[in-house]
Design a protein that fits this description.
heterodimer, A: alpha+beta, Immunoglobulin-like, four-stranded mixed β-sheet, four-stranded antiparallel β-sheet, 11 strands, flat, B: alpha/beta, Cytochrome Bc1 Complex, Chain C, 2 domains, two-stranded antiparallel ribbon, 17 helices, about 50% helix, elongated
């Protein structure tokens, strides 16, 4: 290793590199970023739910079954596509979310999904979550009405679990 | 607009490089070692990462605690320092990568045959960011929580995932250790892909600098060590998905766009896509107009391989002979890699202006600036040198001499001039002195032209400058186009030195003059 003639020069070189490393260290976790103000909380509406098939299953006729390869002769013909959902979320009487949620997948046979984040002031809030997952065109099949208290900085998640009776807080 | 940006950046880099030249000298100047520094920092990150991984626990419950162990009192001198190395060297990689890209742009070293290095640099940017961002998740502190939720929300904006990935971070109960194992895999696999892309990135250049000078590397390591002790990298409290992680201390090198991801993920994707497309299109905005690539003249090529050795772009290779001459090999030019710098002409032993054949040929030549034309221009310039001392400047297009109008043999690279041309100009009395004016020492446009010229003059690289050439009549000036004042000063100083020399022409010139006198009626 060829050392420079002057120790002062060596010191200067180290100072430059140390300043560069210090620059990296300084901006590696500062200045702080505030995603939301201090006096708010977050309510997340997120679920993944599969509605019934878009068309009812029907029994194949013997003629239809005979035309199929032996390993594919299922008596019932069930179309893959699922129905879409319609979901609505109201916070303190204001509808903040109201959308049709189509089934996922190229064949439209996957669950409908949603993930939304709502920033709300800390305090008590009247929450109404509704979901329609049947062929009906008006009204809802599932509903949860509740008043929740959101603490500053709190994150609440509203999920939909049919096995747990519908909308659940997580 | 692009030109203006390029000129402004060039000026900025030039000022910074000259300043750092004073502190480091050209050989150690960090701005001239950005690529090599990037590789060096990668290895620091890799080694420190292996060290940290040995005690890292991928379980969601224990990940935070295992990272905290690094910084506890008994381990901060080794594991704590390694953690800081891992983070700060990664951050410096971003700095070095950005500077490297901007500098190559400012030097116009991204168009023409050099498009390959530029284009392959784009995935390097992506993979480096992905490597860093996945690393931040693993700590599973509040910053990790913020990075995880924001990253997944950003990814979910793209209609390519089945179930929203962000649902993994919905509530404490929704997170699984298997997801962490997947992240560890990504954090190891992506840097390996990055290394592979870096290897591709340097494929079309000869002698890529992948290791900085040892002194520079050692001091960088020491600087990182000192900073790691003074400001160790620490966690920001354990993640809690029941709370919003705010405020968080962001890493502004890796996460500067995350606030935009919070506000408008679609806009951020648009910005990233536009920036990527723009970067990919830049080599052709506009395309570089270059001279025709080098051409081999087999009658004058014995396959010695000097040009292959000297080409900075791997554009030449030795192949089996295709003619009847009694040599085993000949040179073949890969025209897609050739940038027409002419360094091959300068390295060819056949490039000697003393040849007396009617048509001056050499083994490998530039069709648009042949060696014969080079010699003719030397004669033409010599005829215009009226003020004594007469100085012939052999100047590079990319150096300070590119702005000079008179007395300059302009070449695409200083190493395109074979040393015999200097000998020729002085021994034939065409000039009292020759000034070699190349790029600045730390920014040779054609990578190796300056080094080869210096070695040829010093007699360390074939073809050598002959010992008979009076070195006091030769000057080298390494200056960028923005250093006109220094160039003029050094040129004036050289002229003053020449003026002090005996005003006798060199022996060969005397013989030449005698021949002229004898043949003149």
């Amino acid at each position: 290793m060829k050392l420079p003639a002057s120790p002062l020069k060596l010191l200067g070189q180290f100072a430059v590199l140390a300043a560069l490393a210090a620059f990296a260290a300084a901006f590696s976790n500062a200045p702080a970023y505030r995603q939301v103000p201090d006096d708010v909380g977050v309510i997340k509406l997120s679920f993944s739910h599969q509605a019934d098939r878009s068309q009812e299953c029907r029994r194949r006729t013997p003629e239809e079954l005979a035309k199929l390869p032996p390993n594919m002769r299922r008596p019932m013909d069930c179309p893959r596509a699922r129905r879409g959902l319609f979901a609505e979320l109201t916070i303190d009487g204001e509808v903040v979310f109201s959308e049709d949620l189509p089934p996922s997948g190229l064949a439209k046979d996957g669950p409908s999904q949603v993930y939304r984040r709502f920033v709300v002031p800390a305090g008590r809030h009247a929450i109404v979550a509704r979901l329609r997952d049947t062929p009906r065109t008006t009204g809802f099949d599932h509903e949860r009405v509740e008043t929740v208290t959101v603490a500053p900085g709190q994150s609440l998640a509203l999920d939909f679990r049919p096995e747990h009776g519908g909308f659940v807080w997580r | 607009m692009l030109k203006f940006l390029q000129r402004s950046l060039r000026r900025g880099f030039d000022l910074a490089e000259r300043g750092l030249d004073r502190v480091f000298g050209p050989a150690l100047n960090p701005l001239a070692q950005l690529g090599a520094m990037g590789f060096f920092l990668f290895w620091i990150v890799a080694v420190s990462g292996v060290y940290l991984f040995a005690v890292f626990d991928t379980g969601v419950e224990r990940a935070y605690a295992s990272v905290e162990w690094y910084s506890t009192s008994g381990h901060r001198w080794h594991a704590g320092v390694m953690r800081s190395f891992h983070r700060y060297a990664s951050d410096l990689m971003i700095v070095v990568m950005a500077l490297h890209m901007l500098r190559e742009f400012s030097l116009d070293r991204y168009r023409g045959a050099r498009f390959f290095s530029w284009i392959t640099g784009i995935p390097v940017i992506w993979f480096l960011y992905i490597s860093g961002i996945t690393g931040y998740w693993l700590v599973w502190d509040q910053l990790a929580q913020y990075v995880a939720t924001t990253s997944t929300e950003l990814l979910d904006w793209l209609p390519i995932f089945g179930e929203p990935i962000a649902r993994n971070f919905l509530a404490p109960s929704s997170l699984s250790s298997r997801f962490f194992t997947l992240l560890v895999f990504l954090h190891i696999a992506v840097p390996l892909v990055l290394l592979f892309v870096l290897w591709i990135h340097i494929q079309r250049i000869t002698r890529p600098k992948v290791n900085p000078p040892r002194l520079l590397a050692g001091m960088t390591l020491l600087a990182l060590f000192v900073v790691s002790l003074m400001k160790p990298a620490l966690s920001q409290g354990p993640a809690n998905l029941a709370k919003v992680p705010s405020p968080v201390g962001l890493d502004w090198f890796f996460l500067p766009l995350y606030p935009l991801a919070d506000a408008a993920p679609g806009a951020l994707w648009g910005l990233l896509a536009a920036a990527t497309v723009m970067l990919a299109a830049m080599p052709w905005l506009p395309p570089l107009r270059r001279m025709q690539p080098a051409t081999v003249f087999l009658d004058h090529c014995n396959g010695c391989g000097r040009c292959v050795e000297d080409c900075p772009y791997e554009a030449l290779q030795l192949v089996p002979r295709s003619d009847d001459l009694p040599y085993a090999l000949e040179v073949a030019v890969n025209t897609s890699k050739c940038v027409s710098c002419g360094i091959c002409t300068g390295s060819c032993p056949s490039s000697t202006p003393f040849r007396t054949t009617d048509a001056l040929h050499t083994g490998i030549d530039l069709p648009d600036l042949s060696f014969a034309e080079m010699r003719e221009r030397v004669h033409a310039i010599a005829a215009t040198l009226t003020q004594t001392p007469r100085v012939l400047i052999i100047g590079c297009w990319h150096g300070a001499a590119s702005g000079q109008q008179e007395g300059v043999l302009q070449l695409p690279c200083i190493a395109a001039a074979p040393p015999s041309l200097i000998d020729y100009a002085l021994s034939r009395g065409l000039a009292d002195g020759v000034a070699i004016a190349g790029c600045s020492e730390s920014a040779c446009y054609n990578r190796l032209g300056l080094e080869w010229t210096r070695q040829r003059i010093a007699g360390e690289r074939d073809p050598y400058l002959r010992a008979r050439v009076p070195r006091e009549r030769l000057a080298t000036i390494w200056a960028s186009p923005l250093e006109q004042a220094r160039f003029n000063d050094e040129l004036a100083s050289f002229k003053a030195r020449l003026a002090a020399l005996p005003r006798t022409a060199p022996p060969a010139a005397r013989r030449h003059l005698r021949v002229i006198e004898e043949t003149t009626p």
